[in-house]
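Support request, priority: normal
Reporter: lab tech (M.K.)
Component: structure prediction queue

Hi team, I submitted a job for EAL domain-containing protein from Cohnella lubricantis yesterday, and the status page still shows it as pending. I've pasted the exact input below so you can check whether something in the sequence is tripping the parser. The sequence length should be 283 residues. Please let me know if I need to resubmit or if it's stuck on your end.
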Amino acid sequence: FISKKEGRGQYRVYSSLNLHDDFSTSLELDLRRAIDQNQLMLYYQPKVNADTGTIAGVEALVRWNHPTHGPIPPDRFIPLAEESGLIIELDQWVFRSVCEQVTQWHRDNRMPLIVSVNLSMLSFQHAELPRYITRVLEETRVDPRQIELELTESTVMSHLDLTLSTLRQLKEMGLQIALDDFGTGYSSLSYLSKLPIQTVKIDKSFIRDLTVDCGDQTIVKSIIQLAHNLNMNVVAEGVESADQLIFLREHQCEQIQGYYYSPPLPEPDFVEYVAQQQAELLV
Ligand code: C2E
Ligand code: MG
Ligand code: MG
Ligand code: MG
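Reply from support: The job had stalled in the queue. We restarted it manually and it finished. Here are the results:
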């Protein structure tokens, strides 16, 4: 059933998922505090060139270490943040933090990697987004070409006319756009070719059983072919084994992301990972 949420004039749908038990409600309040008080953290997961094994980019993933409940996974609190509208602040916090981190890396003469930031549908459709991004890029003096926005297929495919103009605007500003969790939504293929998107990320559900499931193999091959025909790059997410890597490499998938190379890492460990790789290249 639908009920009116106190104070903010928003409607929320109570689902059988029971997202709105007392625990979730108090979690929502805690999350607001967590954003205000900088309790959230970013982890960084490398994206690796399938051919060379060298690092090609990195995705920032938000982490919440709750003061009493301990670490809470994004799959638990992102949906809560989306339902309460808090996601806009959360995503803005992530974007700003990433830009500040990029500036820091520059100051330390670290490799200039493209850093990817996830945006939820609500954040992407928020009218202030382009202005917010412009302001933060200016304030932190980050080159927009160094930032990639990851939008899910369903985010991009809903409200297509609005989406298209926002995407064009972001592209004009110099940002990269990637289509996340590809294959799980309902892409209109005729629209896909019109979107200013550089990269498609194959959802990890197609990678998990890739070496044994012929259906998944067909899907993955088709996505790679489709993306290449549209002049887009392909990233496979959730790659955990050498066999999966070999299949993807054989089928010309450009980039690999997954535990096989590295899980998401706290910033110092990520810097260490990059430094170690650079040292190996020098040998
Ligand atoms: P995503 O953007 O598709 O991120 C990939 C997820 O796969 C991450 O989960 C990552 O830790 C996980 N992963 C990476 N390699 C492997 C692997 O080899 N095997 C498996 N099984 N999993 C792997 P995480 O960090 O828990 O994030 C889950 C989702 O939460 C993300 O999916 C994204 O949709 C959302 N999310 C995370 N950070 C943010 C954020 O800052 N803003 C928004 N709006 N959403 C975020
Ligand atoms: Mg992502
Ligand atoms: Mg994904
Ligand atoms: Mg996801």
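The mean pLDDT is 90. The pocket of C2E (ligand 1) is lined by residues 45, 61-62, 73-75, 78, 87, 91, 94, 118-120, 150, 180-181, 204, 237-240, 257-259, 264 (CB under 6 Å). Let us know if anything else looks off. Ticket resolved.
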